[in-house]
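COURSE: Structural Biology Practicum
ASSIGNMENT: Worksheet 4, Part C
STUDENT ID: 0417
INSTRUCTIONS: Below are two proteins. For each, the amino acid sequence is given first, followed by its C-alpha cell string. Answer the questions at the end about the second protein only.

PROTEIN I
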Amino acid sequence: MLVTLLLRKGPGTMATCCPGTIDFPTLSLDFKVARSGLPLSVVFIGIISFDNHCLKYVGVAFYKVGRSLSTVFNVFLSYLLLKQKTSFYALLTCGVIICGFWLGIDQEGPENTLSLIGTILWVLASLCIFFNVMYTKKVLQAIDNSIWRLTFCNNVNTCVILLATGGKLGAWQAPCPP
C-alpha cells in the first residue's frame, strides 16, 4: 500500500515540476474526502484479510472457484439491497457458478482439505467485494468521479489503518527471536 501511495503521489509531483512533458493530476489529501472513503478502505482491508486467511485453510483450486462466488453475491445483494433486476443470462451464469462451488466442495471433501473456517472466510471476502463495489460508486460520486483521488485516498486510509492495527496486533514484531 505504501509503495502504491508513493507511486500515485510521484507522477503528480513530476507533472507539477515539468509541465507539458507529463500529464498527471496532482493529488492532495482532503480529510473530508478521506473520511467519506473510510468505509471503502475498511471493506478493502476486509477483502485482503479474508482472502489471505482463507488461503491458509483451503486449497488454491477451491479458492479460485470461491472467488467467482463474488459474482453470485453481487447479483443477489444488488437485487436484495439495491432493488436492481437481473437478466436471465446473469441468473443462469450464477447457477453455473453455484454448481462449480458444489463441485469444488465435492472435490475438496475426499482429500480432507475442506475447511469450514476457510469457507466462511471465503464467503466473507466475497461479501466484502460486493460492498467494495457499492462503496466505490458512492465515494466516486462524492469526489467528482476522479478514480485517481479515490485510489489515493483509499491508499492513505488503508496505510493508516494497517499501520495502526498492525502495531496493536503485534504484526511488527520479529518473526524469529534473535
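PROTEIN II
(use this one for the questions)
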Amino acid sequence: MNVSLLERLGLGALVCAWLIYGSNFIGNLLVQVDEPEVVAVRVAPPPVAEPVVPEPEVDFATLLAAATPDAGARVYRRCVACHTIEEGGPHRVGPNLHNIVGKDIAAKEGFNYSGVLAGLEGSWTHERLDAFLENPSGYAPGNRMTFAGLRNARERADVIAYLRANTDDPPPLPEPEVVTPTAEPDPPSIVDPGPPEVIDEPATEVMEEAAAVEGGGAGSITSMIAAASADDGQRVYRRCVACHTIDEGGPHRVGPNLHNIVGKDIASKDGYNYSNALKNVEGEWTYEKLWDFIHDPRGFAPGNKMTFAGIKRDDELAAVIAYLKENTESPPPLE
C-alpha cells in the first residue's frame, strides 16, 4: 500500500498532538497545583469627623471690660524697646505713651511723627487704638511703625486697659453689646384657679419679710461684713495687688495705697492723682459706699480710671471689706 507524502505529514502532526496532550494530562495527575485562596480583609470605614463649632465671637467692649492692666503690662513688654509709658518718660523710636487714651492722635510734644499719623484727625478712642494695634500698617499705611501688630483680641484689650491705667481721666469704657434674647413660645394657657386666698397679716410684717428676703439695706451689708473673715478677704485681695498696696506707708501703683481708708474721705490719699470722677464724689468711704464701688466701679463713679470689672459675689465683697477694715486704724463700727 502506497502512502502519499501528504498523508505521512498529517499522521505525524496527529501523533505530535496526541503526545503533547498526553504529556499535559499525565503532568496534571502527577503534580497537584492548589489555587490560592482569596482572603477578604474587612476595612473599617473612615472615622466621621465631628463638625467644628466655632467659639462665639465676643464684642470688643465686653473684652475691654474684662481686661486687666496687670495682663496688659505683660503684653506691653513687647513694646518697651520703642516706647516708654511712665509720666515724663523720654521718646524712643516711638513716642512716650503716657496719657494717650482719649487724647489727640500724633499730639505728643517733641516727637517727630510721620506725615501719615500727623494727618489723621480725631483722638485715640478705644476703638481706634484696637484697630491700630491689630494692624498698624493697615490702619495708617506708610507710617514708620514696623511692629506687625497684636492679632489676639484679648491681648489688645489688656494692653488698652494698661494704657487706660496710665492715662489721666480716660474716657468711659464703651458699653458692651446687649444680646437680645430670642422670642420664646407662648406659654400654655393657665386655668383660672379662682380668687386668691386672703391672709389676714399686717402689711408692715409683709414688707419686713420682703426686705429680709431681698437682703438690701445697710443693715444686711454690715451684718455680712461682720460675719466675714479677714483671712478670706486677704485671699480675695490677691486680685488687687497688681494695682494697689495695702501695707502702711506702701507706695501708690496704678491705683492708690489702700491702708487706712475705711471711714476716711474719698480720694484723699496724699500723693495720688485721682480722676475727677472720684474727686467729685463727696463724703467718706462708708461700708455701703465701699460695697457699691467694689461691686461696680464704673457704675459708682462713671469715668474713673479703675478698669477692674468689680467683685460680684456678696461673700467675697464682705470678706475683702473686712480685710480693708482690718488694715484701717480705728475703723467705724459695724452697726
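ANSWER KEY EXCERPT:
Q1: The radius of gyration is 41 Å.
Q2: The longest helix spans residues 5-30.
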